[in-house]
């Protein structure tokens, strides 16, 4: 039986739809009163584990799940030892530098040296500021990063932006994009190479279903 | 104006009640549809910041909040540079080692060397196993640690336990307690020493209100 690590949160619905398209039904995990952390598909060919988005690569890296779906942002931040198989197209967002609207900064280069930057993506933020050769102090937070500039704790933030609503509501402006992120299909490298439980076939079907869904979306967008 | 960092989650209600007892009303943060991350008390003497429990010591350490309420578990795990002022008595829980009911292990010492232990409290778990001189591999997770033994990823977990319901539901047994935790009052060391905005007075009142609440609870428990 194949085990699949599925991310709690914003990527879950699309992830479950993708698996449904290749014949694995994990939709029980979407029920409002669901408290299950694992579910076996009715065909008994696959098991779904519902884990925190950040933990998906951990389960896959340790081989407890052969495949998983996770945001590119998590892969960039954590650098797990997993095989990165496909861009699934959904869950688009970007990691951006933002500052208070009234800060007067027009680019990240304008930030004063040694200023504070609050972020949950500490590694990505550090790499970015090293690349632009600006020494800043990264303040590691676990959430609600937008409070940083509001309270005066930090001059800037590095945070994931999808619609931009949170930034607007908190009077913040994006200055620069570190990278764009979408949902990715990952696999345990050894399981993938050894083709455990016909894994390659499942992966091919997932890739095909994902491309079909993307083209359908593009066509409907054109019409 | 004093700024107070309040923890989202299980400690929030009791924290807000404690501040209410000393005259600061932050209860707007408890409203079901609340989306505010900060609130000014009606007396305009204090501002409450609603942040992730783990971020409370960050806001206090950086001086953005003069005081905060946070679980002892977070202080033990993160070792932030904050003044630890009082045990507030509520939010009791413990950090425990647990294994599957059918594992056969009767104590943490029975665990096989180099086995895997899943935890969100990586530092505390590492210190514990070093102290009992057992070399284990700590698997860092961000949540739903109970999946570790269920999926076979880890032999044991180190996790916070309050009622024990989660352990029972997942067929897990506690082997040992690393430490007990309750909500603590913390302060920014320098603000505390300089008595910014009459901070000492507020802290004295909070301590008194907390002791009063504890004794009332003990009396009612006796009756």
UniProtKB/TrEMBL annotation, chains A, B:
> Could you confirm whether the keyword Glycosyltransferase appears in this record?
yes
Q: Which CDD domains match?
A: PBP2_HisGs
Q: What GO terms describe the biological role, i.e. biological process, of this protein?
A: L-histidine biosynthetic process
Entry EC number(s): 2.4.2.17
Q: Which GO-annotated molecular functions does the record name?
A: ATP binding; ATP phosphoribosyltransferase activity
Keywords of the record: Amino-acid biosynthesis, ATP-binding, Cytoplasm, Glycosyltransferase, Histidine biosynthesis, Nucleotide-binding, Transferase
- Give the first-level EC class, as a single word: transferase
Q: Which GO terms describe its cellular component?
A: cytoplasm
- PROSITE patterns registered for this protein in UniProt: ATP_P_PHORIBOSYLTR
Answer whether the UniProt record assigns the keyword Transit peptide to this protein: no
Q: Which segments constitute the ATP phosphoribosyltransferase catalytic domain?
A: 52-207
Describe the reaction catalysed, as an equation.
1-(5-phospho-beta-D-ribosyl)-ATP + diphosphate = 5-phospho-alpha-D-ribose 1-diphosphate + ATP
Q: Which InterPro entries match?
A: ATP_PRibTrfase_cat, ATP_PRibTrfase_CS, ATP_PRibTrfase_HisG, ATP_PRibTrfase_HisG_short
Q: How does it assemble?
A: Heteromultimer composed of HisG and HisZ subunits.
Task: Print the domain comment field.
Answer: Lacks the C-terminal regulatory region which is replaced by HisZ.
* Protein purpose: Catalyzes the condensation of ATP and 5-phosphoribose 1-diphosphate to form N'-(5'-phosphoribosyl)-ATP (PR-ATP). Has a crucial role in the pathway because the rate of histidine biosynthesis seems to be controlled primarily by regulation of HisG enzymatic activity.
- Tell me what this protein is called: ATP phosphoribosyltransferase
